[in-house]
Design brief:
The complex is a heterodimer of chains A (about 230) and B (about 300). Chain A has 9 helices and no strands. Chain A starts with a helix and ends in a 9-residue tail after the last helix. Chain B has 2 domains: about 220 residues, Rossmann fold, CATH 3.40.50; about 60 residues, Alpha-Beta Plaits. Chain B is elongated and about 80 Å long. Chain B is of the alpha/beta class.
Chain lengths: ~230, ~300
């Protein structure tokens, strides 16, 4: 399996996606810093403490990388069917379930790792900027971080599961745009925030969405050996 | 006789329509088997069935002596294929594509890549993404990819599509060489008759999803007999003269005025003299060759009538 994943990465030159993830991080960091300064100038303290800040960073990061995952899915899976390159892949003496699983594993791992790493990176940037310019009272304490870590991990796991939901819509007509749009809808469901409350806070919602995502992936793989290749 | 591929009453139904019906074909080890049929006859579908991309509705396929199931992955290791047309990840270069192919196939002799690119005349394309290739170049690369692992069986669907005449000859020679030197069995499809004639050892004629004939090329060539065709004013009288005066029995009255004589020893001169003596007017007389094309058109039309 690691070998198949390596070949997929080689085939799609996926290192460019890592570059993309870094750029996304820089943009988010810039946005956060800009928001902080504007808030200070306007005297409107939209971020009053670090706990709130960490939650907002986590939400933005998850939203970004769920959509990022959709673009990966459309490239790695939908694109293979659309461009018929899947024919070539299915002519290799390798179990088809493994071939598709390798692709999905890349999407899941990429999403999970980017969410964690981006959270860490952006929190560091955020706290150093606020500390330096004294924008938020107090400092980011170790306790805050350790308290937040389990929920961030849970959220990252849930996001890695629900990022597979667009696969279902994308595979209907092998359409990349459908894939991306459905991922945006998912983001709107789980990341929209009205008055400090988001649907993601009702724990059952992210968990069931993640389960739906994983089941979609499972059903996509289950019969792949026995059915005709349609493309 | 060892068969490398044998299908038994292979049938494939798509949306209630039989696109392949009851095909029982036999590909011998070490031969070039030509699939001949017009567009949409079912050639590609049969090739997809053999390579396990789609599953038969009825019947079964035996390949390398084992029956194909949805778990038959190992047989794919022994095949090189082009189905429909060669498909690549267009942003990669020819070298990268072959490199990936070898890794997926579990073939680690990377030196072969340069050799095989040389073999199909693509060694000058370094650094160029395949998306910029012409159709002919893609076809060559497809062939390169199919042969690089030296498989025992090559399945090539219309491999000469998009090639120029000299390219066609190169590929033909290459395939013949692979068959002869390496003992590779080749299943090749085409709708171009002349091509099949020059390359195939056995021909399977497919029409409307049915295998209407499967015959050795040597037999086909034998059945191409020359004949003399003439148009006369009175066909019946002429026929009588042919039998009575010239003792020709091997003739056929095609229409009332047209006669075909399949006797190879008799000359046109003798015939016309004999007929003129009896006042039969000859409007036209000529030597005809029963071309392979006629032969297959006849087969296909026959198949249509019985279908």
């Amino acid at each position: 399996m690691p070998n198949l994943m390596r070949l997929e990465m080689k085939k799609y030159k996926l290192f460019s996606y890592i570059k993309g993830a870094i750029i996304a991080n820089i943009i988010i960091a810039g946005l956060l810093v800009a928001m902080l300064f504007i808030a200070k100038v306007e005297g409107d303290l939209f971020l009053t403490n670090y706990t709130e800040a960490i939650t907002i960073i986590d939400t933005i990061v998850r939203a970004t990388f769920i959509i990022f995952a959709a673009s990966l899915i459309s490239k790695l899976i939908i694109g293979e069917f659309k461009n018929k390159t899947i024919t070539t892949l299915f002519l290799y003496p390798i179990n088809r379930k493994k071939l598709i699983t390798a692709k999905l594993a890349i999407v899941i791992l990429f999403t999970f790792c980017s969410i964690i790493l981006s959270n860490v990176f952006l929190t560091i940037v955020f706290s150093s900027v606020t500390n330096y310019f004294d924008l938020i009272p107090g400092t980011l304490s170790i306790t805050m971080v350790t308290q937040h870590t389990p929920s961030m991990l849970m959220n990252a796991i849930a996001a890695s599961g629900m990022c597979l939901i667009p696969l279902y819509f994308g595979m209907k007509k092998y359409s990349a745009s459908t894939t991306i749009i459905s991922s945006i809808l998912i983001v709107m469901i789980v990341s929209s925030n009205s008055g400090n409350f988001s649907l993601n806070d009702i724990i059952i919602i992210p968990i069931s969405l993640a389960i739906i995502g994983i089941s979609i992936a499972y059903f996509a793989i289950r019969n792949i050996e026995k059915t005709d290749l349609k493309c | 006789m060892t068969y490398l591929i044998r299908t038994n009453r292979l049938t494939k139904v798509y949306g209630g329509k039989e696109v392949v019906s009851e095909v029982s074909m036999h590909v011998k080890k070490g031969e070039i088997y030509g699939f001949l049929g017009s567009n949409g006859a079912g050639k590609t579908t049969i090739m997809k069935l053999i390579t396990n991309l789609i599953k038969p509705t009825n019947g079964y396929i035996e390949i390398f002596g084992e029956t194909l199931t949805h778990k038959s992955y190992e047989v794919l290791k022994r095949m090189g294929t082009i189905i429909e047309y060669p498909i690549f990840h267009e942003n990669l270069t020819a070298k990268e594509i072959l490199d990936l192919h070898c890794e997926y196939m579990g073939y680690y002799d990377k030196k072969e890549i340069d050799q095989v690119l040389d073999l199909v005349n693509l060694s000058h394309t370094e650094g160029k993404p395949v998306g910029d290739f012409s159709l002919g170049m893609k076809q060559r690369l497809g062939i390169a990819r199919a042969i690089i692992t030296k498989p025992e069986l090559l399945i090539l669907d219309e491999p000469i599509n998009g090639l120029d005449p000299s390219g066609i000859k190169e590929i033909r020679d290459l395939l013949k060489m692979l068959c002869k030197e390496y003992g590779i069995t080749i299943l090749i499809s085409s709708h171009i008759l002349g091509e099949m004639e020059q390359i195939a050892d056995t021909i399977g004629v497919i029409h409307n999803g049915r295998l209407i004939s499967e015959l050795a090329m040597s037999d086909v060539k034998l059945s191409q007999i020359d004949y003399i065709e003439m148009i006369v004013d009175d066909g019946k009288k002429a026929a009588f003269i042919l039998e009575d005066k010239l003792a020709i029995v091997n003739y056929k009255l095609v229409e009332d005025h047209c006669i075909r004589i399949y006797e190879s020893k008799i000359t046109q001169n003798t015939i016309s003299r004999a007929l003129m003596e009896q006042n039969v007017e000859i409007k036209e007389i000529s030597m005809k060759k029963n071309s392979l094309e006629d032969y297959f058109l006849k087969l296909i039309n026959g198949g249509e009538m019985s279908a």
